[in-house]
Structure prediction request, 329 residues.
Amino acid sequence: MKKATITGWGKYLPPNVMTNKDLEKIVDTTDQWITKRTGIKKRRIVDDDTTTSDLAIKAAKQALDKTNLKAENLDLIIVSTVTPDMVFPATACIVQDKLGANKAAAFDLEAGCSGFVYGLSVGAQFIESGLYENILVIGAETLSKITDWEDRNTCVLFGDGAGAAVLQPTDKGGFLSFDLGSDGSGADALYLEAGGSLNPATLETVKNKMHYIRMEGNPVFKFAVKKMKTASKDVLKKADLKIDDIDLLIPHQANTRIIKSARRRLKLDKNQVYVNLPEVGNTSSASVAIALAEAKDKGKIKDGDKLLMVAFGAGLTWAATVLEWNENI
Ligand code: UT7
Prediction:
């Protein structure tokens, strides 16, 4: 059975930068508080006319350019997002059309900030089963559009962006294991409550600001600290590996305190963990995808390296994978 691996990677961050100082002018916060409690210094924010699919397409084109593929060779496009262009059709279908991927099936996947790693696992299964060969997995978000800019508990955390990966079959290396999970009893810790069947959009839902992200930071923090460690251990065990075998950890970028705690609990060195959170904030399902593309472009991933990617998010969900990077498929 062939394994799946990543042969193309890309990212796109919109040009508008919002700093902590900019946020000080909007809500009752300080650069010092945000830096100390989260590690975030700035984030990118789209303009009003830019959609999630716009970001996704830019990241996807970059990823495809790294491969020998054209868009029309793609068999499947998976877009992981909590900020689709519309409730339906799937953002993946909009991406499929605009890329000219005229042979590709397309669907969206929603697993909160764990979505990109969930997407990698779905894509890998299609390749391992032999059904498809060329798959594009995208994590893309315009979180600024569902952010309550009067809520200091959330608006300091999030940013916009997209990352993409092309998956193809390989004889060597590739995805060695996945660990996915969910705990829906924590659904009320992180949610957007209106616009679905529970609370269809009305004047009341808009007036009551129910179309924005709401979060209980503390329970999510505790969940994250625990799951970053247990999911990492579980996914390593499934691959029959030890933490010493890992060259680089690419964690979901939500809070440097969470990342630091995972690093310490896993006993990894600082230079074995890729962190871009200070520059981009929490981009939800785009976060691991952007970090992966950046790490690769900065020369931090070499042939044969073993990467551990681990994420957590709304659901609550978690997802981890071990990937043995292979340059020569
Ligand atoms: O991708 C998954 C998405 N979510 C997460 O990963 C979030 C995980 N949680 C976290 O990262 C942290 O819980 C936060 C960064 C959200 C909050 O940090 P915390 O250390 O858990 O702070 P807290 O919520 O316990 O709040 C401490 C204090 C409170 O004031 P009082 O009640 O002690 O007077 C807050 O009102 O900090 C206050 N506070 C702020 N102060 C200045 C909350 N947000 C802010 C702010 N600026 N932006």
Notes: The first helix runs from residue 20 to 24. Residues 29, 33-34, 37-38, 113, 152-153, 156, 190, 215, 217-218, 220-221, 224, 254-255, 282, 313 surround oxa(dethia)-CoA (CB under 6 Å). The chain has a mean pLDDT of 97.
